[in-house]
Amino acid sequence: MKKSKYNFKVDLEGRSEYILYNSKTNALAVLEGDEISAYEEEKFEGLGTKMKNNFLQGGFLVEDDIDELEEIRFRLNRSRYSTSSLSLTIALTADCNFRCAYCYEKENLKDSYMTKKHRENIVRFVEDAAKNGLGSLNITWYGGEPLLAFSDLKYLAENFLRLKEQYKFNYFSFMVSNGFLLNRKIVEELNRLQVSGYQITIDGDEKSHNKKRFLKGGGATYRTILDNLKNSIDILPNISLRINVDKQNIDKINGLISELESINKDDKISTYLGKVENYKSLYADSLCLSDVEFSKKEFEFFKGTYPSAILEKYPNLRGNFCGADGLSSYVMASDGKVFKCWSDIGYEKTAIGHLTEDGISLNNRSYYLDLMNFDPTSDKECSACVYLPICMGGCPYDRINKKQKTCLKNNYYFDGYIKEITSILLGNSSNEEMKNL
Question: pTM score, two decimals?
Answer without folding.
Answer: 0.92
